[in-house]
Each structure stands twice: as C-alpha cells, then as structure tokens.
C-alpha cells in the first residue's frame, strides 16, 4: 500500500485496516479474527460504546452484565462477535454513519466510511488522567487493561498512544 489512509496511532500500522479504509471487500464483520479486530475493540471501549451498549441493554430489560462479559471474551479471543457488532452498531447510530444512496439505517459492519470515521476520532484524542484510566480499566477485559493504563487514548477516553 503506497500511502496510508489511516493516520491515527491506533490504526495506521495495521495493513488489514488500511485495506478496509479503501476497499469494500475488506469490511470487518462478524466472524473475523485478528489483531485488527482488537484495535477496533480498543477504540469502542475508548469512545464509550460499551457504556452505551450496557445502558441500552439495561433499558431494554436485557442482561447487560452478560453482554459485557461476552464483549470481554471476544476481546480475549480477538474475535468480532455479536457484542462487538452491537457496539459498532451503537457507535454508527450515534455518529450517523450511514451510506447515503445505499443504506437507510446503520449496520454493524466496519467498512470504508466507519474505519475512516474511527481513525478521525482516534487522531483527535488526548490522554486521559490516571484516575480516568483506572475507572475505565476497572470494567475492561484483562487484555485491555495494560493499554488503558499505559495512557492510550481516543478522544477524551482511552486508546491511541500519543
């Protein structure tokens, strides 16, 4: 790949996500596995999509704790499963990421528009305080805790190292 489309610290060195930023055949979907999926999961945690998913599940009378446990298991296995897909859908709805002309509602796929939007958000981040990182890390999967405590950020939350 000649020039990099994604420039955030979190996404720029991942060739698979660079391809997803330019080609529809590299969408990230349920069933995908790899470190590129974990980068997306880090991002979702950092921007508060998990907290929003928890609140949405509670409001709908669903088992929010089980969904967070499922997300943590997906992080541990670096897999894009149902919980990661739901967090992506919430992120896309919140940010109105809908392909005009071919979509009428957000989906749970990380495609060209979504990964580029995520990269833009990750690029504008600032580090969270140690206390903020401890609060976020308390509910995070064990595999996410080192990244969070190291000060990785996305926006005002935790993710892309600065």
Brief overview, please?
The protein is mostly helical. The protein has 8 helices and 2 strands; from the N terminus they run ααααααααββ.
Structure, described:
The longest helix has 13 residues, at 64-76. This protein has helices at 15-20, 35-46, 49-59, 64-76, 82-94, 112-123, 130-138, 145-149; strands spanning 153-154, 157-160. Helix 3 (49-59) packs antiparallel against helix 4 (64-76) and helix 3 packs across helix 5. It is mainly α. The chain has a two-stranded antiparallel ribbon. 50% of the residues lie in helices and 4% in strands. Mean pLDDT is 83; it is low at 126-130 and 149-162. The chain is globular and about 50 Å long. A hairpin with a 2-residue loop joins strand 1 (153-154) and strand 2 (157-160). The protein has one domain (15-154). The relative contact order is 0.19.
Topology, pairings included?
Layout: H1 15-20, H2 35-46, H3 49-59, H4 64-76, H5 82-94, H6 112-123, H7 130-138, H8 145-149, E1 153-154, E2 157-160
Antiparallel strand pairs: 1-2
Helix pairs in contact: 3-4, 3-5
Instruction: Write down the overall mean pLDDT.
Output: 83
Discrete helix count: 8
| Widest β-sheet, arrangement of strands | 1-2
Determine the N-to-C terminus distance: 24 Å
Q: Element order, helices and strands?
A: HHHHHHHHEE
Indicate the radius of gyration in whole angstroms: 15 Å
Structurally, the number of domains stands at: 1
Class computed from helices, strands and strand pairing = mainly alpha
Beta-strand percent range: under 5%
Total number of strands: 2
């Amino acid at each position: 790949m000649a020039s990099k489309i994604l420039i955030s610290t979190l996404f720029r060195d991942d060739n698979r996500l660079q391809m997803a930023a330019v080609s529809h055949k590299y969408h990230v979907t349920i069933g995908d596995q790899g470190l590129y999926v974990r980068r997306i999961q880090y991002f979702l945690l950092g921007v508060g999509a998990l907290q929003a998913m928890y609140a949405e599940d509670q409001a709908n009378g669903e088992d929010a704790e089980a969904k967070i446990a499922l997300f943590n298991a997906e992080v541990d296995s670096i897999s894009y499963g149902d919980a990661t897909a739901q967090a992506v859908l919430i992120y896309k709805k919140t940010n109105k990421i809908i392909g005009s002309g071919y979509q009428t509602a957000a989906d749970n796929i990380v495609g060209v528009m979504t990964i580029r939007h995520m990269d833009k958000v990750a690029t504008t981040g600032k580090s969270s305080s140690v206390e903020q990182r401890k609060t976020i890390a308390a509910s995070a999967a064990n595999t996410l805790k080192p990244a969070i405590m190291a000060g990785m950020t996305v926006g005002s939350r935790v993710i892309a190292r600065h």
